[in-house]
Amino acid sequence: MEINGYTIEPGAELEGAELEGANLEGADLRGAELFLVNLYEANLQGANLEGANLEDAHLEGANLEGANLSGTNLYDAKFTSANLQGANLEGANLRHAHLSKANLSGANLSGAVLTWALLEGAKANEDTIWPDGFDPKAAGVTFE
Question: Do 47 and 66 meet the contact criterion of CB atoms below 8 Å apart?
Answer without folding.
Answer: no
